[in-house]
Structures are given as structure tokens and as C-alpha cells.
Specification:
Blueprint lengths: L1 E5 L4 E5 L5 E8 L2 E6 L2 E4 L6 H13 L8 E2 L8 E4 L5 H20 L1 H9 L2
Parallel strand pairs: 1-3, 5-7
Antiparallel strand pairs: 1-2, 3-4, 4-5, 6-7
Helix pairs in contact: 1-2
Length: about 120
């Protein structure tokens, strides 16, 4: 899977070059959202927002749409809020696995990531 990471300071594409492009992780005001096509989703603000955003990209890649996330009504700015059902173990397990995969990716690509973060 390929996706973009967009912060106020930089933008960078991550993933395998031949893998399908899924969407964008957007960091604004210390919180990640995810953009897929024309839809922008506000992920749960529970300290794992980056991992929720990655999980949502994975769900889309796997054609599972938003999985078990609860979709709220679009806000006036057009962003669609997402929440987690109480006692949802599927999402919590996916977040744990996503944390592990992200850590593995960072360890395997530490030089690329460091270079991308210092290119300004």
C-alpha cells in the first residue's frame, strides 16, 4: 500500500512503489485525519489517531470500507467524524497490529524517514 503523509512542514509518499495508492494522512493541530478520494475523515482523538488513520487506509486497501468504525454526520467543514463502538475488540486489535507494523517499517526505513524529515 502507498499513502501520503502531509504535515504543515512537509509531504512524503510512503509504501512500496508498485503498490496501490490509498489516500493521505493529514496532520493538523497535533491530530491526524485521513483523506480517501474526496472524503476526509476525522479519526477518534484517543491518542492513537495516526494508527486509526493507518488502519482506515488498510481497511480501504482491503475493500472493507470503514470496518467497524461508526460514521457520524459530516460537519459544516465537510469532514466526516468517526468513532469506535464501545467494547470493540476488532478495532483495538487492529490498532495494536498497526502500531507493530509501523514500528517495523520505521526500523526498516529509518534512513529514508530521517532524510525526508530533514529535507527543508
Amino acid at each position: 500500500m502507498q499513502f501520503d503523509v502531509q504535515t504543515p512542514d512537509y509531504s512524503h509518499r510512503i509504501g512500496q512503489p508498485n503498490a496501490p495508492y490509498v489516500g493521505t494522512l493529514i496532520l493538523q493541530h497535533d491530530h491526524y485525519n485521513v483523506q480517501i478520494g474526496d472524503d476526509r475523515y476525522d479519526v477518534p482523538p484517543d491518542g492513537d489517531c495516526a494508527f486509526h488513520a493507518l488502519n482506515i487506509l488498510r481497511l480501504y486497501r482491503d475493500r472493507q470500507n470503514l470496518g467497524d468504525y461508526v460514521v457520524g454526520r459530516p460537519r459544516p467543514d465537510g469532514v466526516i467524524p468517526l468513532s469506535i463502538p464501545i467494547h470493540d475488540e476488532a478495532i483495538r486489535s487492529a490498532i495494536k497490529q498497526t502500531r507493530t507494523k509501523a514500528a517495523e517499517h520505521v526500523l526498516q526505513h529509518i534512513d529514508e524517514i530521517a532524510e525526508a524529515m530533514t529535507e527543508e
